[in-house]
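Two proteins were folded this term; both appear here.
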Amino acid sequence: DPLLSCDIVGSGDTYCLRINQDTLITVGTLEYVLAYRKEFFGNRGIVVPQDIDLEWRNKQAPLWSLDDLTNKSTNLMGWWKFDELNLSLSDGNSITTVTDSGPNGLTLTAVNTIAWDADGLNNRGTAVLTGADDYFTSPDVAALDFDTNDISFYMVWKPSLGSAGHTEFWLLYKKEDGANFPLWEWKRKHHSARGSTTRKMQFQRKPGSSNFTIEGNDGAISDGVGYIHSVNSSLSDDTVDFYKNGADDGTPGSTALTGDADNTGVLYVGNRSAGNRSMSGSLAELIIVEHATGTVDVRTKIEGYLAHKWGLTGSLPADHSYKTDPPRRSSVYTG
């Protein structure tokens, strides 16, 4: 059950500990109730209130983040927070490396000049990838091999497409050395026909005989505006799901997901390996997870975390679980 409130009420030789307004215990001393509450909160990873604070509400709980992801040690493949470069860089400095905040410690290395903008998105810092040949790489390591599991990517970015001459803008790209095609790629594709242009997110997997291309909906993406984009490739139901700002952005099915093993290759961020199709925008935060993230609870928590951190709650759907309040680590307990 959700832990929404915890109160200590009473006086004299009768005190009660109430959870969600229901009495949990009744004892004779306040000291006993305080000790019970301390153990109750501590066993569930909840910050224990001070003894003088006899009321607790769920909005006092710490904010949820990827640090609280279930099975973080195996499911969180990479987590790069470009705003935290403020610890080592000043506005306009060139980025050399970006540290992984996840358990694998995978460092992104900048190729060619990538500047850090201290106020790139809503008063937080971002990496600016606007040159044709700029990108980040992470080496070929086992920690980034997804094999045949479900994979999900989340990205906060601010497009700056401008008058770019190309029609494909790569976000993520993984390729084995010497291979002609990537293992998989996530990009934004512009199609022009009959005087009109559609702009769709696209996900491709190309190894072996089960190659496929899946596209999301045609959606407006404006320069200078922050977005939360994500894609989930799920083997459990053979689908690729796209999301923009917490709303469905296309859910096309596929029968080609199984058998597409990813067990090698270098990761490219913000471009493809040739370095000539930049994502053209500011990169704020990037998350890669390997597990069945199709569950609404996990996905919406990640979206809520990102939206509240980056000032993008206004773009979430009105019925999003975390439209008003951010997800909190200790608002739910078991037992």
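Next, the second protein.
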Amino acid sequence: PITLAEAVTAIPRSLDNIVDDLHFNVQDPKVAIPLQFLNALMPVLRYELFERDPKSNLSRLHFQSLRLPEKEGEKKGKRRFTNLLEVVFKTDPPPLPTPTILLDATGKPEIYERLFGLRPLVYAPTMRLENQVTQVYSTSGSYESLRQAVFRRHMFELLRQVVTEEPCTLVICKQALERHLRPVLPPEAGITHFYGHRGSNAYQDFQRVVIFGMPGMTPETILRYAGALFWTDQLSTETEFVVRRYAGNDVGVQVLVYKEPLIQAIVETAREDEVLQAVHRIRPGLDADKDIFLFTNLVIPELPVTRLVSVNELKGTRSHSGRERR
């Protein structure tokens, strides 16, 4: 076997010569590629084939398959897909007026520095919640586990117990789980999904919040974002396991992280930071009597855990400490 780069070494580097060798379907304008697109595509292909560091898989090309909506009159259940090619281009950032103020609760200064070439001054209010935070550590809370009936039944039973104790509860979960969880909840409860509640005070009257599972992006999506932001940096995409401990406890959990801090910053913006934003939808800082339940293994440093329990322990209300989860 040979690499793609080895297979095309005979192709001349001149863009004009490569353009002359390409063929288009002139009979069908829907699939024809506009000629001016080649002037942008050829440098990208050159980068992918000859210039990209083999240790980095931050690509400027991404292939994606999207499911198309069903056509009227088409046989029900028939699936149709279209394939997309995404090409990443990096343009010079616009000059920023002085001063420029960014209101972003989850933005990472290191990402802004790479985007605009300036290290921002960060002003973050110090807020230490005095609310009771109960964290249920269990792999049953992962999205993949919840797709299995046995784990889903256990977690749904636990959720039913928690909302029975306090019906005025807001549940925040993945969007795909909303329709499954809604029948479990009493009329007084509310439900919304991750990334769908930012900046809203609509949930401030709820007395309890339950974070059901965790948000986040697939590894492919993470590398798409990293490739768009940092492909010129030839960053390493290697990962490793590290132990993170729950705030206020000696218990830890192993977490897979990217060794490159810039890529890990993308991960945590969409995961840990999103959970923290979700918790604050009920405005717990204004009322210490409001409860917070985390049905996830995810470690949130800004949320000191009052009770760290397993699924079975929560049913029996036995607290837990001093162990490391793997």
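The longest helix spans residues 35-51. Residues 1-26, 318-326 have pLDDT under 50 and may be disordered. These notes refer to the second protein only.
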